[in-house]
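Hello Y.,

Per our agreement to keep a running log of every chain we model this quarter, I'm adding this entry. I've kept the format consistent with earlier entries: sequence first, then predicted structure.
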Amino acid sequence: MPVHEAGALHASGYGDVAIVPAWLRPPADVSELLPQLWARTVRRNDDGALEVGGVDVRELAAEHGTPAYVLDEADFRARAVEFRDAFADAFAELCGGAEVYYAGKAFLCTQVARWIAADGLNLDTCSGGELAVALRGGVPPARIGMHGNNKSDAELERALRAGLGRIIVDSTVEIDRIADAARRLGVRARVLLRVTVGVEAHTHEYIATAHEDQKFGISLASGAAGNAVQQILARPELELRGLHSHIGSQIFDTSGFEVAAHRLLSLHARLVRDHGVVLPEVDLGGGFGVAYTSQHDPLAAKALADSLADIVARECQFLGVDVPKVSVEPGRAIVGPTTFTLYRVGTIKDVSLEHGTARRYVAVDGGMSDNIRTALYDADYSAALASRRSAAQPVLTRVVGKHCEAGDIVVKDEYLPSDLEPGDLLAVPATGAYCRSMASTYNHVPRPPVIAVADGVARPLLRRETEDDLLTLDVG
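Predicted structure for the entry above:
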């Protein structure tokens, strides 16, 4: 049915709501924080304000301004290490451990690349720009992979000159392009073949990536993937390291991975049986979900690793092949929960609607330029009053931005205190993934900074963009 971009109508009071998401409940304490939504060092201090890494958000706002992405450094590094160790342990007896590639597209800057390298993870990139950041951050090239459905010749040559550990082949056309570039440079390219395994991940249409009707990978069902393997093997400039699959994003169970692994490993086994080709690696991709609201219940890294190890072991036993080296690519699951966006409240507006209903709109000083996911994916987020504690009644509220768009919505539905005022600070948790990385300068609004906080100290990882930065690009 058609849905207006502003969403369904609902009442402003929490007791007489006309339409409310089924998962959303009025809180007994509007100041309570749900731990699963926030970075691990976030808490309310004695004044009732949020603090992260021992730093009060009021201090952060005063020094760095709003809006700002605030990243809990200790939480980021702990989650990265948890994935590294969980997959190494779960796959230790099967294949000597699994490799974890942090998916840089979720969020990447030079310092993050340094953390990833220092903490023993690999890094996945999907553009020349991401590769430049990875190299600048000192990630060893052998621990960098490159994705992309339309890599340019310049990007491929940069990857080959740098000596990347692997390039993921996304089309049959790309096979000869990589091989020709490798021949020109006198190197041998290590590649994986991205296979479209035909799995419908239970997620938004735009982040489901393994069904047939989309741009990524080479079809398994049509036989194209098998033909692509032969095409790669025919080029001596290429070293085929294995097969790759990615079924989508924001996934909360491993059933889709079970189907994907079965199909991917069946191709792996067929190559062994029919052609005597033993590929050393299988990559199961990423897409592990995080909690944006109380409706989400993500699996911990250990539970994911243990489940995937059971799946791979069972499939390989059934197919009669040795377990290959396994790799995965978490991005959102590492960085997503570590960051919140800090806004300052501006306009508050109660709008009367038909049939006696109303909606409370709370406008903040950012919006779709710093978080496009609500508009793009119909994503749900939560929010909390950050600068003080409140004992006021909760009011069903929509948090919106400052942009000239009716769809400029940050949080579609949330219970916030009825005494919220202009000037209050508002925090939206779980904005570490795909917020700064997808941010824009729409309406010529400069992009916010990323502030890392640890042990009572805050420092910018990315500075705030300025109007001078925007005008520098304007050659007119």
